[in-house]
Amino acid sequence: MTSTIEHSAGTVVILGTGGTIAGASSVAGDNVGYTAAQRSVADLLAAVPALAGAPLEAEQVAQLDSKDMDAATWQALARAVARHLARPAVQGIVVTHGTDTLEETAWLLQQVLAPAKPVVLVAAMRPATALAADGPQNLLDAVAVARTPGARGVVAVLAGQVHAADRVRKVHTYRTDAFSSGDAGPLGVVEEGVLRRFADWPAGVALGLDVLDTDPTQWPWVEIVTSHAGARGDAVRALLAAGVQGLVVAGTGNGSVH
Ligand code: ASP
Question: Which residue's CA is the closest to the ligand 1 atom numbered 7?
Fold first, then answer.
């Protein structure tokens, strides 16, 4: 186990994409009945006084509920991340994101970029208007991770925990500690702005931005079908008749198919 007590003074770029962390409700204090992606990334930063004066830059890449994430937004985000990572003055990137597809975005960025600097996805389970919003603390923690010397790879930070891109998954629908790394446990925890790390940073060989460098409307059409008791082949036949180019089967048990 290692703990890190210093922070680098390099610039951290905050890329906004929307999500509940940027959500708002007309009913003060409502944790569930809200609309995601209402606040700009600049507004989110302004809600964290402890970040005032820190070397930060903000850029709004998208403004959506992450259930509506799509290939074009992923392409734009990956390009923005790569562009900023290439700047010597940039220490790391923080991406504000919705929780619904955070794990997909984390895995995509890790596979495509395998960054040598930290790319920290941050989200919240409660909107910015909640009585006890979790977004501001999560954002503060995410910046602390991005400023940690030696940090690299794509990770997610929520509820004081740091999860590696190849482990992170959403496991609860409304609790603020909704994310898990499964049996592996989190990569680390953030305690009072200090990263206490239990495992190595995500690593691997980058596929490269080229794999995303085509018109997203021309990407192959791949669907996910689930296997379950009573599942009928008609669903697969209907997809094939409609021209689907690939199928991923989410099986039961140890990948069994009905
Ligand atoms: N639907 C929201 C989103 O993924 C949920 C959240 O952010 O917690 O954008």
Answer: 98
Q: Which amino acid is at 80?
A: A
The CA distance from 17 to 139, in Å, is 14
d(CA 82, CA 93): 10
Q: Is the CB of 36 under 6 A from ligand 1?
A: yes
Strand residue runs (E) in the chain: 2-3, 11-18, 56-64, 90-96, 118-122, 153-158, 161-164, 169-170, 179-180, 188-191, 194-197, 222-226, 246-250
CA atoms within 13 A on the CB side of 34: 29
pLDDT tens for each residue of 102-112: 999 999 999 99
Phi and psi at 46, nearest 5°, equal -65, -20
Ligand 1 pocket residue status of 172, Cβ below 6 Å: no
CA distance 123 to 142: 9
> What is the pTM (predicted TM-score) of this model?
0.94
Question: Rounded distance, CA 149 to CA 147, Å?
Answer: 6
Active site residue 4: no
Q: What is the C-alpha radius of gyration for the chain, rounded to an integer number of angstroms?
A: 19
Q: Which of 162, 155, 147 is nearest to 107 (CA)?
A: 155
Residue 152 to residue 115: CA distance in whole angstroms: 6
Regarding the beta carbon of 20 and ligand 1, being less than 6 Å apart is answered yes
Per-residue model confidence as pLDDT tens digits over 23-66: 999 988 889 899 999 999 999 999 999 999 999 999 999 999 99
